């Protein structure tokens, strides 16, 4: 075979063809070789007839990347498929690591393209309601490549800071205590009745969705194909839908037809937004409150409080035009 | 018009038609009415000819949801379009809030469907390399609906816990100091040369990508259409690509052809994974180290250390079959 080879890292989304992007379909269609974990190969079976197929087991990520590079060096177009998004705990990282190791650069004859897709957190969220309407994190509970203290520190930090959290790789046949430890860390900061949704095989034939709460999470049926979504302190479940409010109730009176609350303006920062908060901070400090007291009251580090107090802010900022946003 | 109405919350991805899912295209095709922010309406102009179009400004999310419900109650099929994913800071949340307020339940004649798509973090990551190969967070710097101390606490927590972070709504004409404060909070925990990528209008006509570092981040050209990606402590930029290693180097000797490191096994948890770490912890405690000393050494809360020490772990766990994972 002649001509330059290409490696396309293709995120196929949750697994049903209709939730795949056009570019993902096209990338698979134009490939000579398709490489992937056996389960993912099955999900795109209809699209790969007549192509060379290289099936790999779950732990052979680096092998998959090496095989892709070999085929591309031989002039072939290779689709390296990941479920969800190729960049989210997917093949994009290991592939670049292998390519760099082999001396590849972007000037190389072998081209690389990453085709983004909806990750598990996007598709699971769509199935359970609207849990990701506010700040969120993804944490993998797999300790096959990550030391447990690193994972535990992350769980602790985001539980404390009230993020919505998606747990990837929550449990396997061998790894059963990680989810128990995650629950333990979360319960230090969050209410026991915090809503939790567990989505197994979302948008696939065996899709299964369970709603539970933080204190019962570890007893639920969770496996390798599950994603666990833990709400923040405002997340609620109503009529079987998990919803995290965006914060409209901070600005608008939702009961009263959406009138703006006193002191708030549509299209402007909240009165407790950055500039309003800096004003409050300066007033409190001027009234004699110490930096340490302010740090405790606002639950932020003292040296951060001190630094913001020291930097004057320009009142003119507030006069600039707002393009508008939520 | 007769028949039951439907509201479809459609995530159109980054904006180019080829990165939209088939279901997103189909949902728009089968709709009678398309509602969205003017910019998003322009992005799908080719797909909506002949349909009723309701253009809304950026701050009118609740209005968009109310209009959608009115049209659906009149028996129309409505596509409420969001850029990226409809569930990630998108219209899914506000829509359910408005529907619940109006007494809607899933048994209502008006059906609701959420169509997931690639969010800004997925598409920006694909354009800059492979930054999301390990745990990550999304934080919106907009204080229009969220008090600044909430945002600041989240920035502080994830900077400390070494997440890769995607900043949404980093800056606007009026909101210019939020990114400076975010930088200040990050620099308390992260190296000044931490890689940062700023992606503006990814996959759109005016796409612009800038690589910078944490200490220069606030001086970069950032606007309403930018997403800011901040790496973790292992993220590097090589040949113009931002990559976060998955952790293979913890288990394999990447220089030596990928041989497994001493004490590590392919397909098994790291020696510093949960069970190995618990063993270490118990040995250190048995040797006389206090809970407080262990907490400081492992940088985890003392009460968490105490609780894990108190719970015995079953050696039999290690004998279960591993399906394999990364």
Automatic annotation (TrEMBL), chains A, B:
- List the molecular function annotations (GO) for this entry: precorrin-3B C17-methyltransferase activity
Task: Return the Pfam families for the record.
Answer: TP_methylase
| Residue ranges annotated for the Tetrapyrrole methylase domain, each copy included | 6-217
| Keywords, sorted A to Z | Cobalamin biosynthesis, Methyltransferase, S-adenosyl-L-methionine, Transferase
Q: Which residues form a coiled coil?
A: none
Q: What is its EC number?
A: 2.1.1.131
Q: What is this protein called?
A: Precorrin-3B C(17)-methyltransferase
Which organism does this record belong to? Duganella lactea
The upper taxonomy is: Bacteria, Pseudomonadati, Pseudomonadota, Betaproteobacteria, Burkholderiales
Question: What gene does this protein come from?
Answer: cobJ
